[in-house]
Amino acid sequence: GLRELVRRSIKINLGARDGKNYIISCMSKQPQITRARSLEYEEIFKGELYFLDLKTAVLKQWDRFKFVFNEDKTRFSEFLDAANKFRSDAHAKTITKEQFRNVMPKLVWLTKCLQENG
Question: What string of H, E and C letters represents the secondary structure of 61-107?
Fold first, then answer.
């Protein structure tokens, strides 16, 4: 949901060409940046964009996204870090019951914000 929100919002606000440059500016790894430069805007979102790049894209354009996340930049940032840390698709590892109980409310908040406001 976050990937789609960022894709749509940036394209609407900046257009595909400037949006592509903006998204590339949010990337952190040089090989990723190099590959993304050869892709069209839409293609970047299909595989070259990491979860934390989405966080950077939102934070750098917070005024465009703040209403989706109840104007709580700190909560958004902290909760997205927690979600990233425990993503089984990217960081496969065992999670304890305590970690699960800690991260679930954060994931619920993020999901709810995206569903209600995205």
Answer: CHHHHCCCCCCCHHHHHHHHHHHHHCCCCCCCCCCCHHHHHHHHHHH
Can you read off the two tokens belonging to residue 84? 């990233």
Amino acid found at 70: N
Q: What is the mean pLDDT of the chain?
A: 91
Q: Is the pTM of this model over 0.70?
A: yes
CA distances from 58 to 7, 44, 93, 95 (A): 11, 16, 27, 27
